[in-house]
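User: For this week's homework, look closely at the record that follows, marking any run of repeated tokens, and judge whether sequence predicts the tokens.
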Amino acid sequence: MAGVPSMQVGRAHGAGVFREVWAALGWATITSIPSELWVTDSEFGAHTIALQPLSISSNRNVDALRTPLRAALRGVGLYLALSVILGIAPECFRPSFVYYVLTRDPQSAVADSFLSVADPAMARRLGTWPPRTLTLPDGSEVFDLAFGRNSDPENLLMAHPVLGLTQLSSFCTMSADDIPRVRTDLATHLAFGPHADTLDQQAFIAAIIEGADMARIEGGISPAQLVDNLTSAALTMDDEPEEPLTLNAIITDLFAGRTVVRSAQVIGRLRVAHEGSGRPDAEECWMNHLKRYLRGGLGVERALAFLRAMTGSTFLFSDPPLNRLTVHFVSTLPRSEMGVVTAAHTCFGEADILMNDAIEEMVSQDVVEDLSIPTDFDVYMDVFCAASGNGDLNMA
């Protein structure tokens, strides 16, 4: 994104340390607020504030919030606004939550155009709506919904605090006008929870939005003013955007293509730099074993673990050179930089892999086609990912 400041902090560390620190700061803002006020997405661990009944959390009572809690909530908003300015996706928060806090537009926060880019998992669930149709013997058509399937869109309907009280049979004869209305209702409640219809009346949300409005800080700017500044800067540099720059576009770009839904997304970013290990055949075998490893496991768990080990994040970056995962094969590594088991060193987006006799012998084994069969290389990479993904970017 244009206007993003440099985040290099030294030759030995690179940009990854800044992003790792920024991600840790995001988790710190979450832990500063009681855990019962958060809802956590089970698939990606992303957080959304838990909306409360208005008897507990009316925005009329925002000034009555305990000072430490209000300050912590405002800190969340400030973190989200700064993430936009820095061009870093705030990965510990759900995209639709980020979108709403910065725009106060609940419908656009769950629009297909945004979710398909920013939250593919949620988009897939909502993509089951409307249900497929069945043609009855008399030639009429009804929507195919049934109890007991344990799948969407039935699960979406049953989880809805109001729609779930209605018999599924009543949805089988919906009119065409009902389809988009019900989809928006399902999406809003899936994103924000059972009290989504009171989103603009929630005290906790109001406090977070206060924090995101940096215009309240002396010398600060609001997210909307950021758009104006970036547009003006682009025009000054005779670099007029192809399309009008909007806050919608900026937030969407933060998450664009960043969510890993296929191992191929990570495999396609792999690059090899030959630094002189003198073992080109072994290097090729190592990469073949790595690609097999990334395709295995449960879903994309290995791809996510490897990505975190290499970058400190489970989100893909869209801009070069951050969008490349480079493997350097070397013949020596300083002992201070060498992992005890894996003999590797990681630094944001790059890994130095020691290629010695033991590693060469391991990768000389045939690449097993059956992904369910564990191999020595799988164990080796499990250790690599666990060591590098525990917050130590520079040691595997």
Summary: The chain has three domains: 15-122+195-255, 131-173, 263-388. DSSP finds 18 helices and eight strands in the chain. The beta strands are 38-40, 47-49, 133-135, 141-143, 270-274, 325-330, 344-347, 350-354. The CA atoms of residues 292 and 369 lie 8 Å apart.
